């Protein structure tokens, strides 16, 4: 029986006493064979390592914890010194965690004192801390024996194991390490029960089941990211926190745990309604770098001074700064936004801002200056990433957000204001060379959005901000038009399906023109014209939309909106043309009503006569044609005018001297413009 026990313990290698009383001979053939086999499979940072002797070796740890990337580094007959000898190959891989089960063989098969064994154990821990400081170490209690079997090697050994157990507990507490008490779970009447052991020391499936359940919360949380969300020192419950893949809500004390995730670059909070994340130098700091050393990610929010069920937001798209000289134009636009926001806030409607991407035209050193200028608006801006915000020439899409994330944090995230949930996405998919990209949301981002929205009740108003529009030209391309791959979101149906339970609005940019698209009931896309006009070459975009921004007013879950042209009053919503402006308009009056949608109505009166309905049509803006016809006068020779469908036309009666056009939006607001007809 003694021989059987020794064989099982070493799983083929006879364990002999070392020449010195405080160590075992771990240098047998089995040890080296098994060690060589294990070291041929390198440890990686996402691994959790089970380090121990035959008790560990016989555990099917990868099967017990299939999601935890567990590798088994148990070797039968091994002792603390033997584990230290093979530690190099383990710590070199910087594993996520090491679960240490050591000391039983030393205590049973040598005369080493528990105190001396503890010193060996601590030297092993010192090496882990020095060579792989981010690795979490879990100390497992040594398991008991069944001394009732009357094996001479067992007699009196439970007392030694118990003494060492006490030393380990105190040492773990002193070092701040987690001590996992498996021993007391297995003890019954001071011994290891027969149903848990096959030979008095090695475990049956029932014994391993006890061990596995004791380890489960620690293995599944090994490498997990923890933290708190507080306001004025008090924990906030129900706040959603994410690492870009996983989402979790804080408990009643404001604490959260996110599963281990090697892909995470940030941990970020979905700022709850009524609270604000800190802002620093024009950037909302709703995020922290993801830590892998087990330290806490702590978010400290502040309470907003007033309610925000009634609030608003502005959307700017494509500032797209090419040169320093353009910053004075940006400053003019920022002052216009400041005045709009200040007026709204005086009426009890707090405002914030969203930039729908293309902050610069590729010179990311402009970010700091851009932030400084936009801070002068007096409102907080959240930013989406545009294709010109990509870092080019990386080897894959995954490298393209580096410059944006270095300044603004995660390229996709969410937050809440009043009764509205906001999600910001990155739909610029870099294809690995030059500046080429397509509009695409990869599975990781869609899966994150699905998890994020799982915390949002159906029927909630949701606003999604991204750069490349999802409903280009107000319709699906059938068959798919590859020429539109960089101008529209190729897999937009996946996004639209995720938004089906909600009253959703999508705000986008990229086109430098205006398109409003009711996609279906409960889903509306606002493709906002460029704040830069035609890339700062003129005060209007290539479709005739004045340089400006969209303004949204939110009351509960109801959303209304208008377009605000820089340097013009809110009432400036249309412009009238006739044949003197463009020969193509002969016999007609044509109005450019840039922010229209199918719910708008437009009518004309000639010389104060009866109103005549104007029909929606497509056209090219004559002013844009004049401004951008001569490429030699432009910094960017590729600028051309854009035909669009936000025009309305009606026949012009002969002899008319004056026309008045009245446009009425979907909310009942009316806008008027007049034009004198020169013959």
Automatic annotation (TrEMBL):
UniProt xrefs under Gene3D superfamilies: 3.60.21.10, SGNH hydrolase (3.40.50.1110)
> Carries keyword Signal?
yes
For this UniProt record, give its keywords in alphabetical order, as a comma-separated list: Signal
A Pfam family in this protein? Lipase_GDSL_2
GO molecular function annotations of the record: hydrolase activity, acting on ester bonds
Show where the Calcineurin-like phosphoesterase N-terminal domain sits.
Answer: 227-301
Residue span, SGNH hydrolase-type esterase domain? 52-210
Q: Which domain of life is it from?
A: Bacteria
Q: Where is the Calcineurin-like phosphoesterase C-terminal domain?
A: 525-671
- InterPro entries in UniProt: Metallo-depent_PP-like, Metallophos_C, Metallophos_N, SGNH_hydro, SGNH_hydro_sf, STPP_CPPED1
**Secretion signal, residue range per the UniProt entry:** 1-18
Q: Does the keyword Signal apply?
A: yes
| Stored PANTHER family | METALLOPHOSPHOESTERASE, CALCINEURIN SUPERFAMILY, SERINE_THREONINE-PROTEIN PHOSPHATASE CPPED1
Q: What is this protein called?
A: Lysophospholipase L1 and related esterases
The species is Alistipes shahii WAL 8301
């Amino acid at each position: 029986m003694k021989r059987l026990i020794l064989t099982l313990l070493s799983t083929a290698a006879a364990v002999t006493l070392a020449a010195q009383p405080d160590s075992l001979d771990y240098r047998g053939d089995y040890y080296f064979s098994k060690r060589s086999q294990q070291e041929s499979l390198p440890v990686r940072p996402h691994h959790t390592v089970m380090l121990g002797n035959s008790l560990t070796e016989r555990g099917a740890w990868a099967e017990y914890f299939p999601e935890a990337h567990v590798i088994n580094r148990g070797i039968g007959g091994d002792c603390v010194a033997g584990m230290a000898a093979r530690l190099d190959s383990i710590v070199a891989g910087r594993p996520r965690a090491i679960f240490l089960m050591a000391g039983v063989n030393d205590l049973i098969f040598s005369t080493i004192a528990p105190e001396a064994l503890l010193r060996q154990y601590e030297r092993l821990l010192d090496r882990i801390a020095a060579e792989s400081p981010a690795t979490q170490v879990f100390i497992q209690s040594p398991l008991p024996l069944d001394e009732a079997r009357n094996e001479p090697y067992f007699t009196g050994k439970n007392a030694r194991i118990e003494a060492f157990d006490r030393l380990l507990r105190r040492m773990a507490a002193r070092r701040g390490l987690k001590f996992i008490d498996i021993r007391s779970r297995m003890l019954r009447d001071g011994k290891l029960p027969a149903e848990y052991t096959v030979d008095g020391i090695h475990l049956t499936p029932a014994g391993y089941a006890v061990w596995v359940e004791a380890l489960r919360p620690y293995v599944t949380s090994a490498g997990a990211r923890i933290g708190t969300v507080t306001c004025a020192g008090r924990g906030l419950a129900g706040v959603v926190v994410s690492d870009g893949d996983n989402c979790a809500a804080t408990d009643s004390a404001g604490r959260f745990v996110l599963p281990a995730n090697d892909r995470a670059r940030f941990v970020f909070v979905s700022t709850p309604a009524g609270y604000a994340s800190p802002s620093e130098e024009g950037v909302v700091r709703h995020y922290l770098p993801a830590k892998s050393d087990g330290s806490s990610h702590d978010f400290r929010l502040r309470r907003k001074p007033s309610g925000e069920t009634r609030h608003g937001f502005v959307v700017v798209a494509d500032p797209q700064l090419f040169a320093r000289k353009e910053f004075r134009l940006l400053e003019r636009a920022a002052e216009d936004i400041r005045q709009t926001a200040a007026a709204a806030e005086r009426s009890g409607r707090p405002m914030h801002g969203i930039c729908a991407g293309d902050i610069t035209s590729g010179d990311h050193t402009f970010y700091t200056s851009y932030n400084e200028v936009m801070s002068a608006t007096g409102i907080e801006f959240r930013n989406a990433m545009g294709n010109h915000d990509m870092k080019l020439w990386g080897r894959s899409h995954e490298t393209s957000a580096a410059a944006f994330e270095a300044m603004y944090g995660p390229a996709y995230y969410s937050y809440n204001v009043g009764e509205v949930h906001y999600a910001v996405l990155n739909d610029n998919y870099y294809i690995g060379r030059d500046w080429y990209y397509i509009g695409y949301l990869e599975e990781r981002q869609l899966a994150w959005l699905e998890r994020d929205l799982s915390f949002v009740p159906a029927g909630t108003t949701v606003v999604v901000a991204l750069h490349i529009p999802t409903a280009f030209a107000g319709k699906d391309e059938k068959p798919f038009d590859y020429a539109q791959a960089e101008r529209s979101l190729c897999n937009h149906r996946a996004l639209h399906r995720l938004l089906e339970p909600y009253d959703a609005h999508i705000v986008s940019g990229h086109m430098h023109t205006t398109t409003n698209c009711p996609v279906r009931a409960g889903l509306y896309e606002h493709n906002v014209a460029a704040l830069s006009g035609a890339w700062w070459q003129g005060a209007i975009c290539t479709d005739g939309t004045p340089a400006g921004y969209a303004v949204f007013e939110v009351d509960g879950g109801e959303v209304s909106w208008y377009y605000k042209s820089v340097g013009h009053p809110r009432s400036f919503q249309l412009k009238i043309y006739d044949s003197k402006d463009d020969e193509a308009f002969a016999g007609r009056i044509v109005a450019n009503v840039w922010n229209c949608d199918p719910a708008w109505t437009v009518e004309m009166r000639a010389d104060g006569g009866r109103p005549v309905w104007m029909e929606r049509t497509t056209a090219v803006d004559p002013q844009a044609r004049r401004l951008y016809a001569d490429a030699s006068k432009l910094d960017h020779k590729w600028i051309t005018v854009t035909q669009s469908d936000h025009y309305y036309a009606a026949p012009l009666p002969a002899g008319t001297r004056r026309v008045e056009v009245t446009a009425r939006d979907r909310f009942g607001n009316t806008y008027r413009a007049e034009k004198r007809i020169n013959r």
